[in-house]
């Protein structure tokens, strides 16, 4: 049989993948790009860009975006590396509990954090009020300071988990060798450990930076006029009067460009810094004594609890008695009752949308992952690169791009559930493709060859040997995608209509309405679902917090 | 006709790289046949072509008279042992070994006896229900061997099975492989880059370099009577005499005819020192390095024909030759080997 005449299965997968990328990524993003070059009357012009760079308002938003991005980056780096260093090097009582706190911070939607901090430190905040009674006045948390506090505490787990992994893998002999050469502990840390964990630091910092730049909920709720590119894009899109789609797309393009620059910068920075340690000498954990021990515990638990505070506040407030949107003394299930009676469809929407997108992600992502890992051609290398694009794409941009692309023309999807499912699908697909590909690359090809030599056809060998080895990873990856999908706010906020409202959107709107009881209850349900998914993932992966990133 | 025959095998990767350049080998029933050569010489490519994982660009392979290239790899009934063991980590030791019996539809009771026998042969019967993840490299490769043997394959292929093990285990396991192979009497093709391993284990050795065969022969023929300069240099150590007047003089003194196109070489153990058991032409020199190894001593001596390495067996415990000491090297007539400009051995020399 001539192999050339038969359409090869993998060739079909490659064609399908390219079609998918063109339809769901290149066309929408392309239409964003192009529509930013047209004015309202449909004439080609650079007026939008001229307006962007000349109007003070947009320039401020641009600077603000960089400020919150780097502020979040610095905050996350400081908190994350302190925690990672303490947990990996010192004996900390209950260190697994601390990791759990970090995971809680990671899987909770950021705008919940923003609101919980308002509850505590806002104009009428709980803690602020208590302090005022004691005679201490502090400014309310609104504005830049508040945003940076929330970002630092929300995004530190990225740095923490990566640094923890890197520090636990630094060969102890290296530090002992440095000690033998007469370096002081401080010099040792600076000259040996620091360069070794630099790739982890920059990768964690980049994640914090990209998420901070893309985050929309936090500056919206806490900013009080402190605008970023994400909020300006949403404002341009959603303005009741004079919605300015082309300005929205212009801001989106600039937002993509900013994210892209930082991703490339981080890749360039960590390009040479890959160290492969042998793991003969695992680092040991020192038992600290006296005030140092107290200090380490205070730091670790302080960061962990502050990061998880929004979650804790939400859970507590979800059980508080309410009268309408106003909290009363005592506890009750009123908020949950209101969800059951009024908001059942929102929960159902969230579950079905996330479930559907995760199903698509797992099936298609696994196929593409196999393609990328096992058939290395020019086309698959390009595919690998193309999958970087959704990774740097802020959710708000995907949302606007989908509106721009599917509002008119051959396929009209605006207002459907499909558009929300697809937007989640394309954003999370790269993660599954990457994890599948890297899982496959770790399985030696001789494993399948062994099965073939023992009498299994190549297809049966794949099913009997490779699939059982990668399935736990795929299920775990699917569960983690589910967590991201169900917590997704920014693209759904642009894409939803009344009937396709999801839990994060509803929570956001409830917070804007001041109905925090129901918002807290809904957030608690969201957290519980996320928690179950994370638990299942850990059951399949073994406990591997880094998979959450 | 031999049991396994490879005729004129050619394998090209891309337009510019030829991994196999017209290779022909024949292996008999029950024979232990080793492909020996440096990395990139094509030995693994040939093995994988026989297994069916990479087909040849052109050439013929036949097993027991039937064309093998027409048979897909999973129907070839050829057992294979891999360099990285390729043990299935999600299956127990028993299930790993029984894996190849399932597609052969062997009844359950027979599976149990055959797997038990195979595991006993590799001395792993106590670990039947263990998962292989925590087992040592040596144990994993034993599983690999049992798994390949249990299907009673028509041919056994081994791709550098010992190269990931430590030196002591390597020697131990190669003896076991040799014993088991003789017991079950199965034609085996073994790939290695380790000349000592090849000499110890093989009935015949095929030395390869750059995609072609240098020499096929018994271990004694390969080591004692190498047909090319490559074989002489790859298997064992070789002193090459520096071309020039001093070498020509020495060759003449030994009653041989020097020529501009002939290169002369001699193995270290065929050289001696004055006053030793070896007799021949004497050549003054200066000791550059003396290494005492107990059973032997290795000397590096600077002479008129270049630096020579000399292996002296049972060296004296008191006579230590320090660097810089003067000494006399003895070169016997039958120790010299002559190679033509094409690298081929000149007959009888």
Description:
The complex is a heterodimer of chains A (549) and B (349). The longest helix of chain A is centred in the first third of the chain and has 34 residues, at 56-89. Chain A has 549 residues and is mainly α. Chain A has a two-stranded antiparallel sheet. In chain A, strand 1 and strand 2 form a beta hairpin. Chain A is globular, with a radius of gyration of 25 Å. Chain A is built from 24 helices and two strands. Chain A has helices at 9-35, 47-54, 56-89, 95-107, 110-121, 126-133, 144-168, 172-180, 185-214, 217-222, 229-238, 245-269, 290-318, 334-342, 344-374, 378-386, 388-392, 395-406, 417-442, 445-453, 458-487, 490-495, 503-513, 516-541; strands at 320-323, 326-331. In chain A, 48% of the residues are buried. With 349 residues, chain B is of the alpha+beta class. Chain B has nine helices and 18 strands. Chain B has helices at 43-51, 93-98, 108-121, 137-149, 167-184, 195-201, 219-224, 229-234, 245-253, and strands spanning 4-13, 17-27, 32-36, 58-63, 66-67, 78-81, 155-159, 188-192, 204-209, 212-217, 239-240, 263-266, 272-273, 281-292, 296-303, 306-313, 326-331, 336-339. In chain B, strands 6-7-8-3-9-10 form a six-stranded mixed β-sheet, sandwiched between helices. In chain B, strands 13-17-14-15-16 form a five-stranded antiparallel β-sheet, with no helix packed on it. In chain B, helix 3 crosses helix 4 (137-149). The longest helix of chain B has 18 residues, at 167-184. Chain B is globular. The relative contact order of chain B is 0.12. The model of chain B has no long low-confidence stretch (mean pLDDT 89). At the A-B interface, helix 20 and helix 21 of A face strand 6 and helix 4 of B.
